[in-house]
Design brief:
Helix content is about 55%, strand content about 0%. It is mostly helical. InterPro entries: INTS15 (IPR027844).
Length: about 450
């Protein structure tokens, strides 16, 4: 690639970018054929990408080359065709990384801008190879940038053009990997801490329908990720389960805090719209937890790998405590209605804890749970969960895998007598359907 720069300089910006993409494809094919492990694009090639595709000046004395809006659209179409026509996934992935792998320099802003437009176009025209590459990018990049990409896509398909969310929804069957990573990024972005960080109703409807159609969707990244090492601490969670639990638990109180004034019956208009959606989402999340014993047992990971992290739950209970305090001070809500919403949030937390522990998604002691829930008000179901008997894991002496992005903070194997209600599912085939407490019914309570 050394002599290419001189041949590109006289060309116009679009022609130069197109020519460089052509040479980059050939270079990466040759790189993979050489058998070098790991295959890595050299720094001079990355500099050419920054100069002729991202238009970052090579030095301070050089003025930046700029594309018109039409030229940029043409470049995006060329890139879509380039990835679509390349049949080898390894070549596509390495090329995508060369174009959009974050380098920690000034070109990263240009990378993010072009990436957002390319993925948005790929959704619009159904370019699955780009969505698959974007899924890998979301899995490997810093969560700050993953959230930025998610925000761009939400703006494009849920805000700028009314009704266009159906285009985004249609990629569910085309690229489940991308959908899984997108849900994880979206639940990281929208933490329900303010009205601005509350998911748009159209987005919520789409995610609920995706998960209802295929419960395993939220586990796809986990199911397809090698378990040989840990994820970077800065990356997204390996599943969106923590974020989805946060949505379901906080929703009854967060929507009352931020949304429209109360109706005569004491509920807000926004609650009427989204209440059933969060109720359906909560049920789906519990059903996903109940899929885990068989999956974890097949991988030899039951009792060794926590998909729901105790530190994430600690953050959630702290946020919930603040929301409960705010709910008590709301002047426009009746005491009885506020109490009902508070109990619904606590019930959902208790149910999530109960089912997650029973099915091996949460590995911690009852003392850990009692500590993180100590600031929460009394709730009958939560009290039952916190006071449940001990669970014995048959493989407690097997070292845990450092797989979760937050495994360093997880008490996966720090308590030899981890607590829960049932024994290992290998000895109880109906384990996933059993409640923690003998004789205690499973009280799923939908929103009204």
């Amino acid at each position: 690639m050394g002599d290419i720069r001189q041949s590109l300089l006289p060309r116009d910006v679009l022609s130069a970018a197109k020519e460089l993409l052509y040479h980059l494809d050939i270079y990466i094919c040759n790189l993979l054929q050489s058998g070098r492990q790991p295959p890595q694009v050299d720094s001079k090639t990355l500099e050419l990408v920054e100069e002729f595709i991202l238009h970052t000046p090579k030095d301070r004395n050089t003025s930046a080359r700029r594309m018109t809006a039409l030229q940029e659209l043409q470049l995006l179409e060329i890139m879509c065709s380039c990835f679509q026509e390349q049949s080898r996934d390894a070549v596509r992935q390495l090329m995508f990384s060369a174009l959009f792998g974050l380098q920690g320099n000034q070109a990263d802003e240009s990378r993010m801008a072009l990436l957002g437009k390319l993925v948005s176009m790929a959704i619009a025209v159904g370019r699955v190879p780009i969505l698959e590459c974007a899924a890998t990018w979301l899995q490997r990049s810093h969560r700050v940038y993953c959230v930025r990409l998610a925000q761009l896509l939400v703006d494009d398909y849920c805000s700028l053009v009314p009704g266009s969310v159906s285009t985004l929804q249609n990629i569910h069957s085309a690229s489940p990997r991308f959908c899984c990573q997108f849900i994880t990024a979206v639940t990281t972005l929208y933490d329900l801490s303010s009205e601005e960080l509350t998911p748009p109703t159209e987005l919520l409807q789409m995610i609920v329908s995706w998960i209802q159609d295929d419960l395993r969707l939220v586990l796809i990244t986990f199911l397809n990720t090698p378990l040989s090492g840990s994820q970077p601490i800065s990356s997204l969670e390996v599943t969106p389960l923590s974020g989805l639990v946060r949505w379901c638990v906080k929703a009854p109180l967060a929507y009352r805090r931020d949304k429209k004034p109360a109706l005569p019956n004491g509920t807000s208009e926004s609650e009427t719209d989204v209440g059933p959606l969060f109720s359906a989402l909560h049920l789906s999340v519990l059903q996903v937890f109940m899929l885990l014993p068989n999956i974890l047992n097949e991988k030899g990971l039951f009792g060794r790998l926590a998909l729901l992290q105790i530190d994430s739950l600690a953050t959630l209970t702290s946020e919930l405590s603040r929301l409960l305090d705010q709910a008590d001070k709301q002047a426009h809500a009746s005491t009885a209605d506020t109490q009902a919403q508070s109990q619904l949030a606590l019930d959902r937390l208790a149910q999530a804890l109960q089912v997650a522990m029973a099915n091996g998604a949460l590995l911690c002691s009852r003392d850990d749970l009692r500590a993180i829930c100590s600031r929460l008000p009394h709730n009958n179901l939560l009290q039952l969960v916190l006071s449940g008997p001990v669970m014995y894991y048959n493989n407690i002496h097997t070292p845990p895998l450092a797989f979760s992005p937050h495994s360093a903070h997880s008490p996966i194997a720090s308590h030899p007598a981890h607590t829960s209600l049932a024994t290992h599912p290998s000895s109880h085939p109906q384990y996933a359907a059993q409640p923690f407490m003998t004789g205690m019914a499973f009280p799923f309570r939908p929103s009204h």
